[in-house]
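Regression test case RT-17, inverse folding.

Input:
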């Protein structure tokens, strides 16, 4: 018996796969690929049946009765008699008699007017002159009256007499404020003295008092089970493969129009709608209107204006300035640089005021040499301090024992002797290349008498 298997089924290491390049659709016979990654990695357990598939079957619902072709549109639709739509026949064009009148409403209603020369408008009586002199007195000068202002007199200041009594420097603050004696407050700062105790330090804690050390038993070693290969061949059929049947369907035709060019033996008709319907009319060319020539007017130009003829010039004096005269303020008296501050301020003789406690004596340098004993050294008392006890837990390392390097993975793991993958050397295991199936798998066959690798 010849056994055919693909590379996906022969490989037992999981690193060899067929180069899948499908070239055909699923056949109606239902031949599908029976090897997938799910089949390779799925571990079947004995005694567990696959659940029934709830997927409906894709069988066509057939009936022996003929199909009725009546629809609601066919039953309710009533066909009414219709006649062809009458096409209006276009009348032939008849050319009118005579020439076209190019007269427009603008040319008909507008008449050109020619205006005469503009005349100068002058007074009939001529220039109106009078013998009365012009009085140039505005309202401001008639209503404003200049009042007489007297001369300013300089204010003389009497001679300053400084006081004879010395200045009293007692102020209101010094009179009303009385200094109250303030007692020195007690310092709440703790003394910088070490609190020594003769009792030993209590290093016992709740954890040390309540903790009870129990002896630990030695870890039991589990025997490693020996791997036993299954004698039954692996069934790669899954629920999806068993229930799924490929539906055969013909290849769809392309709806793309063909690229064949339309050819005709008749010559191209160059008649267009514009050429067919266009009628050429005889139109007179437009008449050009050239520029009009300038004609010099008769007579001489009069340069007189209304301002030159009606204005009468009068001789008026220049306006006087209303700015006050500062010549009267200038005095020959020399400038006195005295001010109220300079006259009233008197510099009093002052003495150096000693600050601080008046009862404190001046610093006197000692005559004895410095002994080198400071206050810190005199008051400091060294205290004997022993080494502190370490709170680090003791290590229970047992010297001379054997290290136990077993882990849960090493204990529970069972090694399987799979051997070399047969795909590496197919001819050695008796496989010869047979074909490439429509799904792209490379199929190899094995002759009779050669054991099939599990």
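Golden output:
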């Amino acid at each position: 018996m010849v056994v055919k298997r693909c590379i996906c089924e022969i490989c037992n290491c999981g690193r060899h796969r067929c180069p899948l390049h499908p070239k055909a659709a699923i056949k109606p016979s239902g031949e599908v690929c029976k090897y997938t990654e799910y089949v390779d990695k799925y571990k079947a357990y004995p005694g567990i049946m696959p659940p029934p598939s709830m997927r409906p079957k894709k069988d066509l619902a057939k009936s022996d009765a003929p199909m009725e072709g009546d629809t609601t549109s066919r039953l309710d639709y009533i066909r009414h008699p219709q006649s062809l739509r009458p096409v209006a026949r276009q009348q032939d064009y008849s050319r009118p008699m005579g020439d076209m009148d190019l007269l427009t409403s603008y040319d008909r209603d507008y008449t050109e007017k020619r205006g005469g020369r503009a005349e100068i408008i002058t007074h009939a009586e001529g220039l109106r002159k009078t013998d009365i002199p012009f009085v140039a007195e505005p309202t401001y000068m008639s209503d404003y009256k200049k009042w007489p202002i007297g001369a300013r007199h300089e204010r003389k200041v009497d001679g300053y007499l400084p006081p004879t009594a010395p200045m009293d420097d007692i102020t209101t603050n010094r009179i009303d404020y009385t200094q109250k004696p303030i007692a020195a407050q007690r310092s709440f700062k703790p003394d910088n003295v070490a609190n020594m105790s003769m009792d030993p330090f209590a290093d016992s804690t709740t954890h040390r008092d309540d903790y009870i050390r129990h002896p630990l038993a030695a870890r039991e070693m589990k025997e490693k089970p020996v791997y036993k290969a299954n004698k039954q061949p692996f069934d790669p059929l899954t629920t999806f493969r068993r229930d799924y049947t490929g539906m055969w369907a013909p290849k769809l035709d392309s709806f793309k129009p063909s690229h064949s060019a339309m050819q005709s033996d008749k010559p191209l008709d160059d008649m267009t709608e514009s050429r067919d319907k266009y009628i050429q009319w005889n139109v007179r060319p437009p008449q050009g209107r050239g520029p009009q020539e300038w004609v010099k007017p008769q007579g001489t130009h009069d340069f007189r204006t209304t301002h030159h003829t009606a204005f009468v010039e009068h001789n008026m004096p220049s306006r006087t300035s209303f700015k006050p005269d500062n010549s009267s303020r200038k005095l020959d008296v020399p400038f006195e640089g005295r001010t109220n501050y300079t006259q009233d301020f008197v510099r009093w003789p002052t003495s150096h005021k000693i600050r601080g406690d008046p009862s404190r004596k001046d610093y006197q340098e000692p005559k004895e040499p410095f002994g080198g004993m400071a206050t810190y050294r005199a008051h400091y008392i060294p205290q004997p301090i022993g080494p502190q006890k370490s709170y680090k837990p003791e290590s229970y390392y047992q010297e001379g024992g054997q290290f136990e390097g077993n882990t849960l993975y090493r204990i529970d793991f069972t090694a399987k002797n799979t051997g070399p993958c047969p795909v590496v050397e197919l001819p050695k295991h008796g496989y010869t290349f047979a074909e490439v199936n429509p799904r792209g798998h490379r199929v190899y066959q094995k002759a009779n008498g050669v054991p099939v690798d599990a």
